[in-house]
Every structure is written in C-alpha cells, then in structure tokens.
Model the fold of this input.
Amino acid sequence: MNKSQQHKPNIAIIFGGRSGEYGVSLQSATAVIKAIDTNKYQPILIGITRAGEWFRFNGDTDKIADDTWHNDNDCVHACILPCRTIHGMLDLDNHTPLRLDAAMPVMHGKYGEDGTVQGLLELAGIPIIGCTTMSSALCMDKVRSHSVVSAAGIDIPWGVVIDSPADIAAALDQAAALRYPLFVKPVRAGSSLGVSCVRSQIELSQAVERAFKIDDQVIIEEMVEGFEVGCAIMGKGNDSIIGEVDEIELTGDFFDFTEKYTLETAQIHLPARLSEQTTAKVKQTALRIYKALGCSGFARVDMFITPDEQIVFNEVNTIPGFTSHSRYPRMMEAIGYSFATLINHLIEMGVKQGC
Done:
C-alpha cells in the first residue's frame, strides 16, 4: 500500500442485519459501495447476517447483491468497539484494530435504521453518515414521531395505539368511531412490513394480530384521502438541500412492500403533479418535519396531500432505499446530483464531522 492510499479515510459501509428488509439492504449497499470514489476513500465493508453475526467482508461486491457474501473465504469475524480510543472496528480473528473515519449504515428497518447501530457508532466516536441515534429511533417510532410533528403544528392522521395484545378489545372499541377503511401498522417497522388496509371489524382483529408479530406496539390509523408524496432532504438545519418532490400513484389500497420494490401497478411521478405553490409548501413542510425530528445527513419525508391540498404527515425514512433507481436518489438526481455525486457528497459530509 502506497503512502497516498494510507491517508485515504476509511469509510465503513454496514449492510445486512436481522430485519425483514435484509435483502433490500444488500441491494442498496451494493449500489452505494460501487459508487464510492476509491481514489478518495477506502471502503471497509461490514456485513451482518440474518442471525446477527458481524463480519468484515473482503470479497467481490457482487456477492453482496446475490447474498453469497457470507463465506469463509471472504469474511473474518469483526465488531465495532465502543472504546473511543480505538475509534473503529476490531478483526476478531487476529485481534487487529482498524480506525474508521466515518460509517454509513445501509440497513433498513429494525436493528439498523432504528438507532441501535447508530448508538454503537456514537459510543465509539465514529461519525455517522446519516441521522443520529436519537433521530433514527424517533423516526422509526410512528407514535412518538407523530407526537413531535403534531407539536410542531403539522397535521397527522388520527389513530388508536395498542400497547399489548391484551388491550386489543378496548382499542377496537375506540376504533369503532373511525370510518373504514383503516390502516393497521406496527409502530416500529419499515417497508410497510406488517401493515394492512382493513374494511371490516373482522379484518381489523386479524390485522392487529399480524402487526403484533412484527412489533410489540400497534397503531390503528384513519385513512387519509388523497395521495402520498415524498421529499428528499440532505444536510442539517437551515443549510439542508431539498430534492425534488415525487408522487405515488396507486391502483391498490396502499404502497405495500411488493409495490415499493417492484412497482407492479403503482407509478412514481417525478416531479409530483402539483402546482408550483403547493410544491413549495410541501418542501417547506418537509424541512420543518426533518428539523423537528432532529434529522441530519439525509432522510426522505413522506406526506399525504388531501383533495383540498392539506398536508398530512406520514413518516420519515432515515435510511431510504439506495439503489440508483430508488426514490431518494432519483429525487436528488432531479436537482443535479448524480448517484455517485450524491454518495460521495454524503461521505464527505460525514468525514467532516470527525475533523
């Protein structure tokens, strides 16, 4: 290794994980890794299996995409050490420490997007490319993020929270005041996993039971008339860069897991089919939500637009899909950031945190 290579910042890309979105993470991470400018940065690839084992991966990037990365030839056991003096990871096979200048978790859902990995990185003093522990955990929680956004003066859907399966009967009585169809959602999950659209009380009971298999808290929400839009944001505070707004056109009840990753019947309109005035209002509201929830680095803010153009908050994805055709990168591409430019700009911002 020559001298110039030795001075390249080590950038950890963390992928995989124990959530139901493991496969999505592999696709996103592969695209991110291939976009990194290796003349400027040294990618350090850290994979987490479905069982929760951590490895440093040294093989061909395509093995991540097809899920053949976890093998004895390409992997060594590794972990992030919370000790700030090491400021990085440890190869557990030969006990060799490696300093990390920044880390980008490219993981969706629980045990990756929810603040767990971010907390470990913050303990270790490793700059995070993306949202902090607090904002990651807050945005993953639909109940608490809605409370914060509502306190900021932004409309949210009306809902009933069920804290345990023992409370289902009482919650169903409260939900009786709502009009069908209703949405049943795990409070902490991504990619619409465990989400159901229901049209009767019989369906409602079954949907609540399914949602409790994903999380230990469930919310029943009213259906917001209108359509969903998204807004990509990058940076922190008032200096944030706001991407183009997109719009989801559905033929089914909602944007479920299958539609999100196949678009079998749904369409994404970029830019959204909104007036200039409404688009500006959506961007302004998205930034207010982003700031209220303490987001930084990057995130996608999702909202509903009602027939009378009222904006209603849905959720924030702190680690949205990250292939070149995913919504967040396409929204940023629409304002001039190619996929590679976007990835390397995010890394640059992360490295500067540690300087």
